[in-house]
Amino acid sequence: MKRLFVGSAESLLSLKDCFMNYPINWQLDELGPQPGEVAFEQWLQMIQANLEQFEKNITSRLNGVSSKLGSSIDPYELAKLIEQYGSVSGDWSQAVSLVGCYASDQSDNEQYRKAEGAVAAVYPMLTRADHALDRLLKGIEDQPWDAIKNSPELQNVFPFLERRRQEATLRLPDHLADFAGELNVDGLQGWSRLYDELSGSVRITVMERGELVEKSPGQIAFDSPDRTDRENKFFSSQRAWESISEPCAATLNHIVGSRLTLDRYANRESYLTIPHSQNRVTSRSIDAMWEAISGCKSELVKYLRAKQQLLNLDSISWYDLDAPLASHSPAVDYQTACETILDTFAAFHPPLKEFAEHALSSGWIEAEDRPGKRQGGFCTDFPPSKQTRIFMTHRGTEDGLSTLAHELGHAYHAWVLRNEPLVMQSYPMTLAETASTFAETVVAEERISKCADKQNRLAALDRQLQDSVSFLMNIHCRYIFDNQVHTRRAKGELSARELNEIMVDAQKQAYAGLLDDSGWNPTFWISKLHFYMSDEPFYNFPYTFGYLLSQRLYLEARNDPSGFPASYDQFLIATAGVSAISAAKESFGFDLESVSFWNEALQPIRERVESFVTISAEVNS
Fold first, then answer.
1. Which pTM was predicted?
2. CATH topology of domain 29-186
């Protein structure tokens, strides 16, 4: 909150200048018509018409040349086609993001759910346009490709062309690609939307002030200082999620089964081929990352055992992992969270602060704690409008502050790229999570540096190490689970009971057997939305990848505080390039395929564990 000075009339500032009350609800009107309105239907029809026209233009181009497509590709003509593709795909992306915002804001609104289906029905048109573009690029031979590479008209979009040409080799054969795209509306995407409806209907019964009340899953957290409260919420949540276990098992089986079928017909090497391609990483980089993490698990166990002693627990259960150390965690209201983040960003990188203030004051964020919202949080882009929107639920805690910093990191990433060509504003989740987690780390480290009291410093370190456990253990269990499900699903469908067993086995491996025998979370596969995302298989390892890369960037920033911010912005621009591997290599010289790099990235975590264990021993003595 800005300070209010009282003085003469001449010295009085306007109310807006004296203090800023940042809106806690977002504003969506300027991004497009509201779903359910006639204008929305007309907008969607226009997007369909433009996609159809683009596909016709590409198809005409394909039919009008010889089999050696590259012999007559004119760079200027190709540049125009890419510009048109950016425009039509950007409009569709805008519609998807807008409907997603409305549906997340009011999960029980039938019009919004129908609009999600209507937008999804347009997706086959986009995939046909994609397939046509891929056929064009794939057919260009090496010699004319070299001419395109050196063409001034295509210099600013060539990384996009190069990436798409590579990805085209992984597509289904031409005669199946369009068919599969249309089938996905009622297949993969249909099952994914069914999960949204199932999970959106879940209500968890909890006791509040002597009365039983129903809460949305997003309103339930296991972060109470009272273990009985955490335990009751956990088992109430288990019962609620178990009530939809059978339809969710069927949904997950059909999503994974559909993917495996598509992989087989496209002759892909494995079920990880597409996740690696989408995230612009290599199997070597992911294997190196998990190898380094496995060698660091003992450090996290050391931290959790020290925390167990501080909490006076005989054992640790799933619902203890986020337990606070203090009996009364300090409340952080939304306005305070905003000001804290802005102050930290200002000290680190003024352009980041200026952007965050613009986003906060312009109604780009939905953070109100109320029933009817979907669970989780996200930042979604609106490239044609050069804007973003953030969805979250701020419950007046430090976690809410961290989530806001995290999502603003995402938003800044898109902001830095806003003036690039539309096709050069797309970046993989691995690097998206790098930007978001880096912003979160900058805020967290600044908070810790201001903690003089041992108890407060211990609590701040605990919050950071909770994140480490999430990224290095929780995400790891999801990755192990996903691998096991894809492997076993290839042999037949899996029952809800079997999925429970696979999940517990994955947790035992990822958490190094740390939790109590009765303390695991067998229904985690039901409650975690990420397993059911139709277009993003293995929506797990990119989080850990981005988190650890952000920690290595934090070391870089710590060693070069004056020069780092400018290099960081250039890195964000490079994330839209061909691969995450080359972006890190070209910007900072990092070798993401080496175990040694990931061990370096783990160093800040080791330091935090050492500090936590040392201070906890002093507090206990």
1. 0.87
2. Butyryl-CoA Dehydrogenase, subunit A; domain 3 (1.20.140)
